[in-house]
Every structure is written in structure tokens, then in C-alpha cells.
């Protein structure tokens, strides 16, 4: 690849962007507008909440208590564990939403009419879901207490009015502030939409203006043309990332608890795939109108609906959950929320990072293979 020719294409594309106020508005104004408009989270009912359990008691009493959660449509016990690190790792990875710890003397407290301690740890990085989950837990415990009292009255025995002493704790977002959940996810939405929309027009614009024939007649190779057109939007994408991060911190007070370098690296991987997807669409469509429509269908709708940003993935039908594995923003949102709110590192996020690498590699290969230096 000749760097001189690539730099010439880069300069040409940058000049075109600078002279097009609509592209500049799309690149910089829309991210800020979306961040402001979506500063408030959505409240949705959920079920099948993945829950990890550490039953230190192991008695029939504690098992009967857990049956109340098993029979509830709102909870799904994914496994039983015997230590905090195992459950913490599940919550860090996003595999569990809630962890429950039953005290070793749970049955003794119940049988002696004492207050039985019950610890519930909830992933608060998704504030609205955490608030809903906490309400569901309280309802299940309340129902258990009521039934316990009714059984005690029927047996003409004296019982504590609240045999289970629930001690809940919210992790990562103690105040359940919706902005802390929505802003990291919105960064992924912005980067995907802006990247795909901007680059989906770049090759199609050349065909519509009749300048592609001139580029084809030059010594510029296909890879040089693609890289030259990719690079300006990569720079713009990182400017959008910086704007989003600064607005999140300064305007919404969203903490950045994780590694900034990891954030930059993973954002670069995701941005590369999104930009190359846009270039592939642009090459395939050869029309700005068709390219923009295809970009919306392939980037905006899946990213907004199937990435876990708007709706919890575990609350979707099983066949839809399988489709979400094809949505790259699904993995990037987990990474962003992990870095922002949980301070998670490579040990928890590496499966999602590998998924992004695969997406970017496929997008790059498709864009390069699709573009040919010929008129028809």
C-alpha cells in the first residue's frame, strides 16, 4: 500500500466532509442531541432474571424458601455457588443480575422465631432493571412472610411477623441513577449509527457525482482508496467518543471507573467494524438514498432494539436471543458498562472483546473484497 496515494485520498475525503455542513452536523450535532434526549431511561417489566445462589444453610427450610423464587416467573436460578468471588465474577460478566446469600443459621432463626438474615446483591449498573428486581425480591419475601404467619396462626403458635430479615445491597449504582446506565449504552448506539451512516454515503456519493470513474483511472489501488476514505471518519468517530465521554462526565456525572486505555482500544475495534460495515454498504448500494436506508436497517434498528440497550436480552424470546449474538453493539455495550460502572478489566470482558475483533475482521474483509476498481 502506497502511503502517499492513501494520504491523498484521505485529504480529499476530509475536504469533502469539511465543505459539507450536513455531514458535519450529522457527525457532531447528532451525538450531543442524542445524549441530551436519551438522558432518561426507560422503565420496562422484566422476567427470567438470572440469579446466583449461595445457600450456606442447606436445610429443608432454606430450600422451601428458595422454591418461592423458583416458582416465580421473574427469577431464573442459574446455579448454586459456595463463595463470593464466583458470584461476583458472574455479575461482572453480566451473566447474573442478582446474587442471593442465605445465612448458615437461616433455619435456626426461622424455627426460633428470630429474624433470619438474607443477603441480596443486585447489579445496579442497569438502574431501572435493578429497581424493578429489588421490588420483585421484596414481593417474594413479603409473600413468604405472610404465608409463614398464616401457617403459624393455623397451628395456634406464636411466630415473628417478619421471619426473614432481607438485607439488600445495590452494586455499581447504589442510588439507581438512570443516567449512569443509559449514557454508556448510548455511546455504543451513537458510534454505530454515526459510523455506519457517514461511511455508507462515501463511495455511493462518488458514483452519483461521477467522480468514481476518475478515481478508477488513477494508479490508486482498491485498498488505498478504502483506507483513505476510512481514516477521516475514524478520526471523527474518536472525536464523537471524546465528546460523549466528556458530556457523560460533566453533564450527567457518569463515573469512569475502569481503564481509559482499555476504553480507547475497544472503541477503536468497534469503530473499525462499524465504519467498514458502512463502506461495504456504500459499495454495494452505489446510491446515497439506498445506502442510507440500508445503513439504518442494518445499524440503527438492530443496535437500538437487540443490543440490550432498550430491552433486556434475557427477557426476549429464545429465538430472538440467538439473533442478538449477531449484533456487535451487544458486546460493546457490555464492555462500556463494565468499564464505566464496574471498573471491569480484561479478565471479565475478554469474551466480548474477541467478539468485537471477529466482527471487525469480517467487516474489513467484506469491504475490501466487495470493492473492485472497475466501472461495471
Provide the spatial order of strands within the biggest beta sheet. 2-1-3-4-5
The share of residues in extended strands comes to: 5-15%
How far is the N terminus from the C terminus?
Answer: 24 Å
Largest sheet: 5 strands, mixed
Can you tell me the number of structural domains?
2
Please work out how many helical segments DSSP would assign.
15
Estimated radius of gyration: 26 Å
Class inferred from helices and paired strands: alpha/beta
Give the fraction of residues assigned to helices: 55-70%
The pLDDT mean sits at 83
* Gross geometry: elongated
- The string of secondary-structure elements, in order, is HHEHEHEHEHEHHHHHHHHH
Poorly predicted residue ranges: 40-44
Annotation, overall tally of beta strands? 5
Overview of this structure, please?
It is a single chain. The chain has 376 residues and is an alpha/beta fold. The chain has 2 domains: 3-37 and 178-370, no CATH class; 49-171, abc type-2 transporter like domain (abc type-2 transporter like fold). Helices cover 65% and strands 9% of the residues. The protein has 15 helices and 5 strands. Helix 7 packs antiparallel against helix 12 and helix 7 packs antiparallel against helix 14 (328-342).
Concise synopsis of the structure shown:
This protein is α/β, with parallel strands linked by helices. The chain is 65% helix and 9% strand. Helix 3 links the parallel strand 1 and strand 2 (75-80).
Amino acid at each position: 500500500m502506497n502511503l502517499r496515494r492513501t494520504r491523498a485520498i484521505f485529504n480529499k475525503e476530509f475536504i469533502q466532509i469539511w465543505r459539507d455542513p450536513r455531514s458535519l452536523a450529522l457527525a457532531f450535532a447528532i451525538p450531543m442531541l442524542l445524549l441530551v434526549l436519551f438522558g432518561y431511561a426507560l422503565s420496562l417489566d422484566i422476567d427470567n432474571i438470572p440469579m446466583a445462589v449461595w445457600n450456606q444453610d442447606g436445610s429443608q427450610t432454606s430450600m422451601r424458601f428458595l422454591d418461592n423464587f423458583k416458582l416465580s416467573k421473574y427469577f431464573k436460578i442459574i446455579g448454586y455457588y459456595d463463595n463470593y468471588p464466583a458470584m461476583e465474577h458472574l455479575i461482572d460478566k453480566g451473566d447474573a443480575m442478582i446474587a442471593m446469600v442465605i445465612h448458615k443459621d437461616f433455619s435456626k432463626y426461622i424455627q426460633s422465631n428470630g429474624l433470619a438474615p438474607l443477603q441480596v446483591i443486585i447489579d445496579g449498573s442497569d438502574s431501572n432493571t435493578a429497581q424493578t428486581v429489588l421490588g420483585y425480591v421484596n414481593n417474594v419475601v413479603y409473600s413468604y412472610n405472610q404465608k409463614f404467619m398464616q401457617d403459624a396462626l393455623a397451628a395456634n403458635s406464636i411466630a415473628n411477623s417478619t421471619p426473614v430479615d432481607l438485607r439488600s445491597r445495590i452494586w455499581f449504582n447504589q442510588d439507581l441513577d438512570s443516567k449512569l446506565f443509559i449514557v454508556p449504552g448510548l455511546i455504543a448506539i451513537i458510534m454505530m449509527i454515526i459510523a455506519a451512516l457517514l461511511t455508507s454515503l462515501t463511495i455511493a456519493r462518488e458514483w452519483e457525482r461521477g467522480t468514481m470513474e476518475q478515481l478508477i483511472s488513477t494508479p490508486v489501488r482498491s485498498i488505498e482508496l478504502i483506507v483513505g476514505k476510512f481514516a477521516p471518519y475514524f478520526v471523527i468517530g474518536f472525536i464523537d467518543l471524546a465528546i460523549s465521554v466528556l458530556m457523560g462526565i460533566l453533564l450527567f456525572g457518569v463515573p469512569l471507573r475502569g481503564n481509559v486505555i482499555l476504553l480507547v482500544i475497544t472503541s477503536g475495534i468497534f469503530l473499525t467494524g462499524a465504519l467498514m460495515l458502512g463502506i461495504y454498504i456504500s459499495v454495494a448500494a452505489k446510491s446515497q438514498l439506498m445506502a442510507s436506508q440500508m445503513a439504518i436497517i442494518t445499524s440503527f434498528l438492530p443496535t437500538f432494539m437487540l443490543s440490550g440497550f432498550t430491552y433486556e436480552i434475557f427477557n426476549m424470546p429464545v429465538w430472538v436471543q440467538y439473533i442478538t449474538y449477531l449484533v456487535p453493539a451487544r458486546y460493546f455495550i457490555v464492555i462500556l458498562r463494565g468499564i464505566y460502572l464496574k471498573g471491569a478489566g480484561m479478565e471479565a470482558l475478554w469474551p466480548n472483546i474477541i467478539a468485537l475483533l471477529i466482527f471487525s475482521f469480517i467487516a474489513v474483509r467484506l469491504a475490501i473484497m466487495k470493492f473492485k476498481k472497475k466501472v461495471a
